[in-house]
Amino acid sequence: MPAETITVNRDIDADRRDAAKKFREQRSRAGTLVVNLVSSPGAGKTSLLEATLAHWKQRWNVAVLVGDLATDRDAQRLRPFAPTEQLTTGGACHLPLPLVEQGFQRLPSCPLDFLFIENVGNLVCPASHDLGEHLRVVLVSTTEGDDKPGKYPKMFRTSDALVVTKLDLLPYVPFDVDCVVQDARKVQANLEIMTVSVTQQTGIAAWCAFLEKRREHMLQEMQQS
Amino acid sequence: MPAETITVNRDIDADRRDAAKKFREQRSRAGTLVVNLVSSPGAGKTSLLEATLAHWKQRWNVAVLVGDLATDRDAQRLRPFAPTEQLTTGGACHLPLPLVEQGFQRLPSCPLDFLFIENVGNLVCPASHDLGEHLRVVLVSTTEGDDKPGKYPKMFRTSDALVVTKLDLLPYVPFDVDCVVQDARKVQANLEIMTVSVTQQTGIAAWCAFLEKRREHMLQEMQQS
């Protein structure tokens, strides 16, 4: 007989779901809306965050967790705007929740209105990992082509909002906003869809208003529960 | 006592390496250069293949295996140019060798000079999977930013060539070709680097000449061995 009993076949997925739910609930109680930004590499996650933080001009308490395989290039860009922690995955293709939790612990311990998580640039793997966010936002740039939602369906199906970026490049690329909207809605009918150009500063105010409204909604839900 | 013995701890990685080596050697003997194209989603793998096949005007016998999570959109674009097989990963983030082998078996059984594998759009996971290619080519579009090699080092370290795409968009985006070259060479000093614009048809002849030279080199190596 074995000296100790080892439980196998433990439902790791259930453990992960519970941990993500707990992180989300804790942030809700603290009044922090957690936003997980996902996209292909170079779709403009860091640029959108720069524009968001510049638009708010410190009206809200914000912190950022930035995921990357290597380097802290994105974190360096964001530190002038808000407390930012680099999460280096060391080659892994997505941010896992434990890394997010560790990064969160390293942030200054002041109340936060918004916590942004900039995921690793990857339109596939981050779709399968709940980071305890309230809002998953997928970015697609006009230069990537308007056929992406159907080709990478899980990312769009699991997202709450789609932000089409680099609208300023529309005159130079074969991209139809109506097409990408139609394609995305086929995958996820309730997707909130916005368009922005960080270069031309269009759509930023609407995007920020959307985030504020979602936070307000979260606070109301907390009061009712 | 168990009725049969099951060998565990088998070195699956070694098995995979052997299978990839075997596939590569078989293609070498058949005179087929296998080219694995990798990049972020929307960097222009399919467009580069369209331009390549149009440039060659059936001078060479070519076939294409196209990987996608879902849909056969890219395969539809390429079928007018060459025998093309869709490989649907069903959500997986990279092409595995067995899927490539199955797709290869479905191709018309005629001699091939070039076999292109268009991988899933993902700058992370395909870096870890040898598909039996002779040449791994990573594409970076000018719209993605010139900071990508350092941020996604494994993909550049394991590639033989870098093709910078969408050169026509250079006037409209913050991208410095010298920067990306420098960043890429830091990761992989021997990387062959080319620039193309499919829209303006620049760099396509040089890219095709590079492929032809590499095939010639492979044939010479076969003769000497």
Instruction: Tally the beta strands of chain A.
Output: 7
Q: Using the CA coordinates, give the radius of gyration of chain A.
A: 18 Å
Main sheet of chain A: which strands, in order across? 3-2-4-1-5-6-7
Distance separating the two termini of chain A: 50 Å
Largest interface (C-beta under 8 Å): A-B, 32 and 32 residues
Main sheet summary of chain A? 7 strands, parallel
Pairing-aware structural class of the strands and helices of chain A? alpha/beta
What is the typical, i.e. mean, pLDDT of chain A? 95
Q: What oligomerization state is this entry in?
A: homodimer
What portion of the residues of chain A fall into strands of 2 or more residues? 15-25%
| H/E topology pattern of chain A | HEHEHEHEEHHEHEH
**Number of alpha- plus pi-helical segments of chain A:** 8
The coarse overall form of chain A would be globular
Helix content of chain A: 25-40%
Poorly predicted runs of 5 or more residues of chain A: none
Summarize the structure.
Chain A is an alpha/beta fold.
Can you tell me about this structure?
The structure is a homodimer of 225-residue chains. With 225 residues, chain A is an alpha/beta fold. Chain A is 39% helix and 18% strand. Chain A has eight helices and seven strands, in the order αβαβαβαββααβαβα. Chain A has helices at 12-29, 45-56, 73-78, 97-106, 148-151, 153-157, 177-187, 204-224, and strands at 33-39, 62-68, 84-88, 114-118, 135-141, 161-165, 192-195. The first copy, chain A, has a seven-stranded parallel sheet with strand order 3-2-4-1-5-6-7, with helices on both faces. In chain A, strand 2 (62-68), helix 3 and strand 3 (84-88) form a beta-alpha-beta unit. The termini of chain A are far apart. The mean pLDDT of chain A is 95. Chains A and B meet through helix 5 of A and helix 5 of B.
